[in-house]
Amino acid sequence: MTSLTSLYEQYHKSNAAFGENYALAIDLYTKAIEMDSIRQEYFRNRANSKFKIEKYEEAKCDVIKALELSAKKSKLWLQKGVSCYNASDYEEALKAFSEGKTLDYESADYFDVWLDRCAVKIQEIKDKEVEILLSKQIKVRHEWYQTEMNIVVSILVKNAKRDEVCVEITDKTLRCKIQKNDKRIEYKLGIHLAHAINSQCSTWKILPSKIEI
After folding, report:
1. Under DSSP, is residue 188 helix (H, G, I), strand (E, B) or coil?
2. Which of 75, 103, 133 is the last residue of a domain?
3. For the chain, N or C: smaller number of CB within 10 Å?
4. Please, which residues have CB within 8 angstroms of residue 12's CB and are 6 or more apart in sequence?
C-alpha cells in the first residue's frame, strides 16, 4: 500500500518539475496517478503540463478524467474548453465553456470571451464548407423552348451518367439534380411552371452534350 508521505512527496516533485521540465512533470504526475487515481488535481496538473507542450488532445483527455472526479469545478470546465479549442474541437469547447459559465457567474464575462471565439470558429468552418461545396459545383446553364404541344428544357452538361441524374416532373414543377456517387451534389435545378403540363407523358433523356427534358 502506498504511504501518504510518499504520495505527497511524489506530488510535490511533480509540482516542482512543472514550469521547468514539462516532460518530466508529466512523467511524475503519471506516477502520482498510479499511486492514487482518484485525485482530480493530479489529472488537472498533468493536463496543464501536456497543454504547455501543445499536446492538446491528451490534455483534453486528462481534463475529462478530472471532471469525472469533480464535475462542479468551473476552472476544470474552463480548462477543458481551452484544451478543446486548441485541439480545434470548437463544438465541444463551446459546450465546456457554457457549462463552466453556469457554475461561475462572477467569471461570466471571461467565459463569454471564449464562447464568442468558439462561435466565430464554428461559423468560419461552416462558411468554408459552403465555399468548398460551391467551388465543386458544375458551372451549368440551361435553356428552354416551347411549341404548341411541348415544353423542352435542355441542361447543358456533357457526358452525364444515368445513375448520376435524377429528374422529377409533376404537373407544375420540374426538378433535376446531378449527384456524384459520393453523394456530393454538383448541380441542382428547380422550375415552377406557369401552366400545368401532363407529367405522365413527360420524358427525359441523356445526350452527349446535354440532358433533354
Report:
1. strand
2. 133
3. N
4. none
Residue 157 shares a structural domain with residue 80: no
Instruction: Indicate if 9 and 101 belong to the same structural domain.
Output: yes
Which is nearest to 6 in space by CA: 27, 24, 31, 30?
31
pLDDT at 114: 93
Evaluated on CA atoms 130, 133, 138, 143, the torsion sign reads negative
Average pLDDT over residues 125-147: 74
How far out from the chain centre does Cα 43 lie?
A: 27
Spatial separation of the C-alpha atoms in residues 23 and 18, rounded to whole Å: 9
Question: Same domain, yes or no, for 29 and 123?
Answer: yes
155 pairs with which residues across the strands? Answer: 142, 211
Cell of 90: 470548437
Residues 60, 154, single domain; the answer is no
Name the residue range of residue 179's domain.
139-212
| pLDDT, tens digit, 9 for 90 and up, residues 166-193 | 889 888 888 888 876 655 556 778 888 7
